[in-house]
Amino acid sequence: MSIENLEKQYDSSKVENRWYEFWEHNHLFAPSADRSKPAFSIVMPPPNVTGKLHMGHAMDETMQDILVRYKRLKGYRVLWVPGTDHAGIATQAKVDNMLREQGISREDIGREKFVDHCWDWKKQYGDTITRQIRKLGASCDWDRERFTMDEGCSRAVREAFVSLYEQGLIYQGNYIVNWCPHCHTTISDIEVEHEDNQGALYYLNYPLEDGSGKLTIATTRPETMFGDTAVAVHPDDERYKDFIGKNVILPIINKPIPVIADEYVEMEFGTGAVKITPSHDVNDFEMGERHKLPHVVVMDDYGVMNENAGKYQGMDRFECRKQVIKDLEGTPYFDHTEDYSNSVGHCYRCHTVIEPRVSKQWFVRMEQIAKPALQAVLDKDIQFVPERFEKVYIGWLENIRDWCISRQLWWGHRIPVWYCQDCGEVICTREDPTVCPSCGSHHLKQDEDVLDTWFSSGLWPFEVMGWPDTDKDDYKDFYPTDVLVTGRDIIFFWVARMIFDAYKMTDQRPFKDVLIHGLVLDQHGRKMSKSLGNGIDPLEEIDKYGADALRLTLVTGVTPGNDVRYRSEKIEAARNFTNKLWNAARFVLMNLEDFQGTVSDKPPVSEDMVDQWIITRFYEVAEKMSAELDHFDFGEAAKTIKDFIWNEFCDWYIEMIKPRLYGRLTPESKLSAQETAAWILRETTVLLHPIMPFITEEIWQHLPHDGESIIISQWPENTEGLRYDEAYKGMDFFMDLVKGIRAMRYDMGIPTGKKSALQIHCHNEEQKAVASGYETQLKALAYADEVTLLADISAAERQSVSSVVQGAEVVLPLRGVLDLGEELARLQKEMDRLASEVTRAEKKLANQGFVAKAPEAVVQAEKDKVESYKLDLEAVKKRYDMLSELENA
User: Fold this and answer.
1) Is 70 exceeded by the pLDDT of residue 315?
2) Residue 115 CA to chain centroid, in angstroms?
3) Does pLDDT of 1 surpass 60?
4) Whole-angstrom Cα distance, residue 736 to residue 281?
5) Is beta strand 784-789 parallel, antiparallel or unpaired with respect to 756-761?
6) Average of per-residue pLDDT across 763-774
7) What is the per-residue pLDDT across 339-362, written as a single tens digit (0 to 9) for each?
8) 837: which residues sit within 8 A by CB, 6+ positions away?
9) Alpha-carbon gap, residue 163 to 364, rounded angstroms
10) What phi-psi label fits residue 529: left (phi over 0), alpha (psi between -120 and 50 degrees) or beta?
11) CA 243 to CA 741: how far, in whole Å?
């Protein structure tokens, strides 16, 4: 059999590009056509079409890819659907900027042409992130790639909206919303990022209309006072009982407004009296609804004061705040100012301060829709991993508000509602109407707003499977999906919406498990961000270290839900492991050049203890990895296979079979070593494949195998319960023996290149068989030139050191290996040096001038030195005393 060896150096870019093209060209990411296999499906959280691969994406895609590759190997029909999100605000902003650079505004060209530009931009740049995801090795079915505004998704969005509208669950109304003056659109509560702000609390005097006194109110936003329609106090506040029902005069514009009582008012805040501005504060809006207060909007879409602000019209809201206070200072209307810390909402996209404002918007009634989604998690129909994230999900759904789904954008799913310009009829249909069903008019105008991006992405798990056409094969075969892998930061944004949408639209859960992973932090534990300049580009890491090394790094030490620090040392260690595996594979292949045996699906039959041990250990590792991957414990799975390859296959097995491979023993032992090494290496690449797909494919292809790719091979299963207990026990003794001898040599300071004799008194016949049968390997691994098995321990050399290994007494004679006289002289010199250092440091610390004047850190460093010197002195003295006894023996 002719077996070609690997190249001397592993070239990750060359290997990765070649194999990814091969996999995709041969449609190896598509589900198996064998419908008798169980199905497993995942939908990729669609990254924004404007996006660029970052470490969060890399973590997300790696975990998903590990699962789908593992499930393929386990015999499942696997479907992983990729796709991208149209990202309404982000994409519109990109195109706006592009046109602005050309001297064009979207208002100049109109909606239709602007949307055309958005589609052109998507075609030109929209596949950037999907190309980058390919670089990572993601084995999703690109033939099924979706986009949240493609024809099928658009039809699903239309169906969902119309269905909810027909059930009375979508309505239009005036409501307080989060308005971004920069993006010129509403954003949902969960898209608001709250940041601590050091501001001021302004105390203003509102005089009573009857002249009998005043009410002092406290506010952080005096610029909204022109929209005040009441002042509120708590009904139980004795200070203000006589004020309730009276009017106060609004300063500057001299407008009377009522004093009302409401239990929402906190008596401890400020003076206990607060201004109520229903059009510009969420809580004030609710109070205004209870008391039927009028609404006065004082700002336009850009956060600029309007005509209701009187002489302040045209001012930016923050400029207006400063000017109002400046104008009131020194008048009876101004009391005083206090420093005040509060939390201020910002737009998650552009970080502009949000302006709460009343606006006519479209909403989804959430109370009814949220109940099944809440119950599904309470009943464990859907499970979060780790479980602690259920509390976050449950808490949000239990306190959910109606969802504002309209956005004042041009790019996105336009709301499928038309208004008859003649009779005012509101029309919501699955097909674009051409005539008013009420009056027959053709003068119809579509609603200008688009839907919140999360409205379409909330349908993602079932719309990509063909819904609303539930007779589609993918829908029948792969929906509901099995697992959602996502970050903890979008439990509200996306996870909850997919769940309540799925129960409402399909009456089924969208997935069984929600695997939450943490954030990828920098080496100091900080979140990666542009402002900190600590972001690490995964593509640069791939170019430098390879995708396999990056993937291994991202899952090493990871536990579900917890953040992980990204350190350069970790990816360098991963690259070192890659090289270790590559070199081990080259060694095995080099020793297969004259191979005349076979490598079948089953492990080879060998009488050799070492072969039997590695086969037993291999199946233990395969079983352990299966359990770990089934429980989404990627970090432990990576550790399990890495430790096996490095510590057992490379460091023990390969070293143990070298005498056999080199022909120093029998031809039969060489053949069994070749067969076992080839089989173990091939099957081990299968275990490692989900984590490191590229290097494993390259190695697997060079070994005897069946099939066109490792992707569609089989996960090793110990179906026959194969286990060699005696070999396992024997090898365990051999390894402990070598470790014990190496420890003695280290303690005695014997150089690695200096070989020594060994004397072993075995505890039983089994140990004797191991020590004698593997004497050649023992000499090589324990740096011995002679091994003697003692019938009686009394025959052991007296000038020696010894240890006990599993009952066997191991003796290391020192004669000819270590000159005790020279070593004792060296140790005495070292003791003298250390004693001198201890004296010097203690004298320094006894100097009160030093202790008083030196920095605390310097003094502590000197104390640490004393302790370190004392420990070293104790260790050297202990060794000196031991060798003195040996010299006198």
Assistant:
1) yes
2) 34
3) no
4) 72
5) parallel
6) 93
7) 998 889 998 778 899 999 888 889
8) 865, 869
9) 12
10) beta
11) 92
Letter for the amino acid at 455?
F
CA distance 447 to 417: 6
Q: Which of 104-113, 597-606, 627-636 has the highest mean pLDDT?
A: 627-636
Q: What is the rounded distance in angstroms from the CA atom of residue 245 to the CA atom of residue 375?
A: 45
CA 249/CA 214 separation, integer angstroms: 9
Asked whether 538 and 363 are in contact (CB, 8 A), the reply is no
Longest Cα–Cα distance in the chain: 119
The pair of structure tokens assigned to 424 is: 């005012």
Q: Residue type for 7, please?
A: E
Crossing angle, helix 609-630 and helix 634-643, to 10 degrees?
170
What is the amino acid identity at position 606?
S
Tokens of 822: 């020279």
Using CA atoms, how far apart are residues 44 and 481, in angstroms rounded to an integer? Answer: 11
As given in the structure block, the two tokens for residue 635 are 């970090």
- Are 411 and 91 a contacting pair, CB within 8 Å? yes
Residue with token string 């005089």: 207
Residue 491 has pLDDT above 80, yes or no: no
Question: Across 455-583, where does the E strand assignment appear?
Answer: 483-487, 513-517, 520-521, 564-565
Expressed in angstroms, the distance from the first to the final Cα of the chain is 60
pLDDT at 183: 84
pLDDT tens across 449-469, in order? 999 999 999 999 999 999 999
Q: What is the DSSP string of 383-429?
A: EEESTTHHHHHHHHHHT---EE-EES-SSS-B--EEEETTT--EEE-
> Which residue type is seen at 824?
L
Helix, strand and coil percent figures for the chain, each rounded to 5: 50, 20, 35
**CA 688 → CA 66, 87, 419, 476, 718, distances in Å?**
10, 36, 60, 32, 17
